[in-house]
Amino acid sequence: MAFAFDRYCAINEKIFSERLNRLALRMTEALEVMKQLGMEQELDEALLLSSEQPPWNFRRPTLTPPVPGYEPGYGLDVPQLRSRQAEYPPVERPTDAMEFGEGADAHFPLVDSYRMEDFTVQCTKELEERHGEIREAAPTTGVEGEAWEAYVALQKKALARQQLIFDLCNDTELRERYDADDAFRQQILEERGIVPLEIEEERLHEEPRHYAQEPAYHPFRKS
C-alpha cells in the first residue's frame, strides 16, 4: 500500500504542479487587468485572498513508511539503522517519461523495440553521469563503498546485457558467430563487461607486522 501510495502521489504531484502553474499564470493576468482598470481596492482584496493558508493546517506526509522488508526497524531507535539511509522504494521509474511524458505511447508497456533500444542507451549514459557525480561529490569508502560499487556494476552489467540482446537481434552474422564460436562469445562478454564479478578473498598474514601493530605489552611470565 505504501509503495502504491508513493507512486500515486508522485504522478499526481506532477499533474497538480502543472495545473498550479497554469492557474498562477491566469491569476497574474487577471491581476494585471485589474491594475489597468484602476481597481485598487479589489486588487488588494484579491492579493489578501490568494495569500491565505488552507484551513485546519491540512497537509500530506512527504514520505510514507517503507514497505515491510526494506527497513524492519522503521520507527525504532536501532543503532544499526542510524548509520545508513532509509531505503524507500522508488517513486519515479525510468519508464515514467515513456508512459506519462510528451511522447507517451498508448500501448505501453508494449512499445516498439527501437524505443527500448534508445531507452537502454539513455539509461546507460545517465548511470555513467550519476555514478561519476556521486563519486566526486560524496565518495563512500569501506564496506558501504564496496557494496555501492558492486551495485552500480550490476546495473551496468544489466544494461550492457540488454544492449547485447538488441545487437544480436539486429545483426544476423554476429548472432550466428556468437552462437557457434565459444572464444568469440567470451571475447564479446569481456569487451562489454558482462563476465561474472570476481571477489577476492581476504589474504591474511602475507606481510610481517609493522612495528606499530605489535602489542605494547609483552608478558614475561605465564600465570
Topology:
Blueprint lengths: L1 H35 L3 H11 L28 H4 L13 H5 L12 H25 L4 H29 L1 H9 L1 H11 L31
| Element-level helix/strand string | HHHHHHHH
What's the overall average pLDDT, rounded? 75
Overall number of strands: 0
Shape type: flat
Distance between the termini: 64 Å
Domain module count: 2
How would you sum up the major sheet?
none
Helix content: 55-70%
The SS-based structural class is mainly alpha
Structure description:
58% of the residues lie in helices and 0% in strands. With 223 residues, the protein is mostly helical. The protein has 2 domains: 1-92, no CATH class; 97-192. Helix 5 (113-137) runs antiparallel to helix 6, helix 6 crosses helix 7 (172-180) and helix 7 (172-180) packs across helix 8. The longest helix has 35 residues, at 2-36. The model is unreliable at 60-64 and 66-73 (pLDDT under 50).
Task: Explain briefly what this protein structure is.
By secondary structure, the chain is mostly helical. The chain is 58% helix and 0% strand. The protein has 2 domains: 1-92, no CATH class; 97-192.
